[in-house]
Amino acid sequence: MPTSRSVVIGVDSSTQSTKAAAVDADTGELLAIGRAPHTVTGTSGARESDPEEWWTALATAVRASVRQAGIPADAVTGIAVAGQQHGLVTLGADGRPLRPALLWNDTRSAPQAAALAERLGGPAAWLARTGSVPVASMTAAKWQWLRENEPRHAAAATAVRLPHDHLTERLCGHPVTDPGDASGTCWYGTGVGVGTGVGVGVGTGTGIGFGSGVGVGFGSGVGTGTGVGAGTGTRTNARSRAATSTAGAGAYDREILDLLGLDPSLLPAVAPGGATRVGTLTPAAAEALGLPRTVAVAAGTGDNMAAAVGLGLGGAGLLDHPVVSLGTSGTVFAATRTRPADPALAGFAATDGTYLPLGCTLNCTLAVDRFATLLGLDREDAAPGGEVVVLPYLDGERTPDLPHAAGLVTGLRHGTEPRAVLGAAYEGAAYTVLRALDGLLAACGLDPADPAVRDRPLRLIGGGARGRAWTETVRRLSGRPLVVPAAEELVALGAAALAAGAVTGADPVALTTAWGTGAGEVLPPVRRDEETWDRIAAVLTAAGPTLLR
Ligand SMILES: Nc1ncnc2c1ncn2[C@@H]1O[C@H](COP(=O)(O)OP(=O)(O)O)[C@@H](O)[C@H]1O
Ligand SMILES: O=C(CO)[C@@H](O)[C@H](O)COP(=O)(O)O
């Protein structure tokens, strides 16, 4: 292999594992994928992981990807991390985690979320300011939980990070995030409004600075960043200074931070986008990863934002391409130019400044796999549920907002086969995701039942998209055509495009469009199974009061 080949590494640090994709930066050829698992602990609503394990897993997966690709380490020119969203990482004075991270699917913060949602003028005000109403998943609710339950840790925190920011900082030494992942905190304003930005700055010896105020500014130079628009970056040493904004477009919302008692200086600077070059590997990171120090580090983003990049979505009104991701979470999202205001959706920013409205369920592949284990079946050994209905809300649920719910099975008879119970678990999980999809389409002004809308193919991604039982269940319950991209690991590929963008300045969405990573087999629609849909809907309605507790 010629050493002139430029290879970029895209990292997906998700709930269950880290995946690192080594990709030819010019052609988009996937050379190898390295993997390493994560441990998630907790019962009764708690879900935590040790950020140190994410770092070790990242190093293991990156080393494996380079080894399997058979490339020399100095062929690697760039790296970017896409991470599971919302998780709360708190660092102490030594720069190390004070405690395990509180994950997106930790529902202990539900009471704090409900209380926060009533502040600031109520849910409509949160929607207008941040695009989302606080639910247990949002970082703001987790921070508030920490303040109320572990005030010692909240007081000792010298830095507050999201999973991907934390890993990016471990790579390059700079505290930086991006608009996409920041928009999942509920303390970042993504709406169109007038901000009073004083700027966000992060300085280094070689100097990078980001300004953020009205719009988002970016500056470079030793010590001082000058923002475009009204944002002016200011150099600080170890920490960034947060922008203030009343209802800011692309800025931390100072009033929300005050409400949360969260010092803005604990937060990372917000780069203009995930492909922004934010530094190079530190000596320690270079050693851990076995890569040269010259490797460029991109700002990175949240996993769903990176999946959109991997699919070549962004920069346009792309509701033609709704996406369903089947992983630990089931997510539905679309790249849009405007942000719908719907309390059941998260009005996220995409990493390129457009929007990525998203619905997210807590119980998808992992919950169904748990049913397979309980029943002693292989995950593919499922039959249609028939009269059996399973609401597989083992972790509580986020969409619909039922954080205290548990799993529910109805319709069992003496003759019920285990395979039908497993099939019903698939149906319940798929129904919950597809119901969120209908909500997303409706919030974007489309009638989900309109045949012209129904004909738009769904892009099916995530680990579950590799399984036949999943694809067949989604086809049957949606009645829509599906596109299952041939490329696996769209999040890691999207991150690789961000890394390539940081190296060459190219637009990452244009890169993945050229790479063709979103292309795949089209599965034609089958007749929609309305009976099963209606049966599940009726059980969900009837069980509402039980599931609320
Ligand atoms: N071949 C397959 N068939 C069906 N499901 C699969 C297959 N491979 C992986 N999965 C499912 O994918 C899940 C992991 O998907 P992934 O998108 O990587 O999750 P996460 O991003 O939450 O870590 C597992 O829970 C597993 O159930
Ligand atoms: O909370 C959300 C989105 O809002 C989740 O989608 C997380 O980002 C975790 O993703 P996976 O690990 O399930 O891919």
Automatic annotation (TrEMBL):
Catalyzes the phosphorylation of D-xylulose to D-xylulose 5-phosphate. The record marks D12 as: Important for activity. Substrate binds at Q85, H86. The keyword Translocase does not apply. Keywords: ATP-binding, Carbohydrate metabolism, Kinase, Nucleotide-binding, Transferase, Xylose metabolism. Residues 8-188, 249-310 form the Carbohydrate kinase FGGY N-terminal domain. This is Xylulose kinase. Residues 324-501 form the Carbohydrate kinase FGGY C-terminal domain. Its EC number is 2.7.1.17. PROSITE patterns: FGGY_KINASES_1 (PS00933). One of its GO terms (molecular function) is ATP binding. Belongs to the FGGY kinase family. The gene is xylB. SUPFAM superfamilies: Actin-like ATPase domain (SSF53067). It comes from Streptomyces venezuelae (strain ATCC 10712 / CBS 650.69 / DSM 40230 / JCM 4526 / NBRC 13096 / PD 04745). It holds the Pfam family FGGY_N. It catalyses: D-xylulose + ATP = D-xylulose 5-phosphate + ADP + H(+). GO terms for biological process: D-xylose metabolic process; xylulose catabolic process. The active site is at D303 (proton acceptor).
